[in-house]
Design goal:
The chain is an alpha+beta fold. The protein is 65% helix and 12% strand.
Length: 303
């Protein structure tokens, strides 16, 4: 148990220390806390600290320091995240203001600064950049034009549409203006988009089939071989099917099985002995198609 504790102390101590050193240029406060906590956990360093301080840390105090360090790190990370979000919000607001004033290029510079300096899972700068692109995209305008209800389309034609498609007001107005320029072609656009979606659906189905076939081909040999007995080479599914149709299933004696992989199915020929209705043993041959699950799809011949 003591050995396990020592190993864990070394592991977490080194992990916290390295983590702090790696991120020190980005998050100084969190890094310092992480390094201090890591060094505190490493046994030889803790021993030196105790000798210098002429004080031996008891187990409860060690736990208190470790938990306290983690809590402080949590608060520090949360505070830094909040601060970064606040700075990003300010830059995005400035960029939005520049867009309202018509200074689009300056706004793009601000957005790029925010993207580089304050990356996050909810990057508002990236969202604003996407809105700039969409406000000038004819394809995006066509998509949104098709999504309008009849009443909204009438408002668009009359110049009274106030729907918020984009969050940034100026960009939203620019998009609506672009949509209005496409309004006379709405019926044609609806047809084009419907055709495009149908093509995409067909392409997606073909791709799914291609992936499925590729996966099947990759595992084909293994899938096929698993259907046959490693003992006598008989096909399990076909053997079961034959026995169920015999007068005396217990008299079944497998003689030979051959198969051919036909890509979409497997062609199997089995020769066997079995008692007929008169009790005599005769040789029979059955050929069938089976699927890749081992199920008999069709009996081709039986004699």
């Amino acid at each position: 148990m003591n050995t396990l504790k020592t190993v864990l102390k070394w592991f977490f101590g080194i992990s916290f220390t390295l983590s702090g050193l790696i991120s020190i240029s980005d998050e100084i406060i969190v890094s310092i806390i992480s390094i201090a906590l890591g060094l505190f956990l490493i046994p030889p360093i803790l021993k030196i600290v105790e000798e210098k301080a002429n004080y031996t840390f008891t187990s409860p105090i060690k736990w208190a320091v470790a938990i306290g360090g983690l809590v402080i790190m949590g608060f520090a990370i949360s505070s830094q995240t909040t601060a970064k979000d606040g700075k990003m919000d300010k830059i995005v607001e400035e960029a939005s203001s520049l867009i309202d004033k018509g200074n689009l290029e300056e706004a793009k510079v601000k957005i790029e600064e925010a993207k580089i300096a304050y990356s996050s899972s909810d990057n508002k700068a990236e969202k604003l950049e996407t809105e700039i692109t969409n406000s000038r995209s004819t394809d995006f305008a066509k998509e949104k034009l098709v999504e309008l209800t009849d009443d909204e389309f009438k408002q668009l034609e009359n110049g009274t549409l106030s729907k918020s498609i984009l969050n940034q007001k100026t960009l939203n107005n620019e998009l609506i203006t672009l949509m209005k320029s496409q309004a006379p072609e709405r019926d044609k656009i609806i047809k084009e988009i419907a055709e495009k979606k149908e093509q995409e659906r067909i392409a997606a189905e073909l791709e799914a089939e291609r992936i499925k076939e590729e996966e099947l081909n990759k595992n084909r040999k293994e899938i096929v071989e698993k259907q046959f007995s490693g003992w006598d080479g008989s096909h399990r599914g076909l053997t079961k099917f034959i026995k169920e149709s015999m007068n005396d299933p217990d008299s079944y004696e497998h003689m030979e099985t051959r198969f051919r992989d036909d890509k979409s199915s497997i062609f199997v020929i089995t020769k066997f002995r079995g008692k007929n209705a008169f009790g005599g043993k005769i040789i029979n041959t059955v050929s069938a198609r089976v699927d890749f699950e081992g199920n008999v799809i069709e009996i081709i011949s039986q004699n």
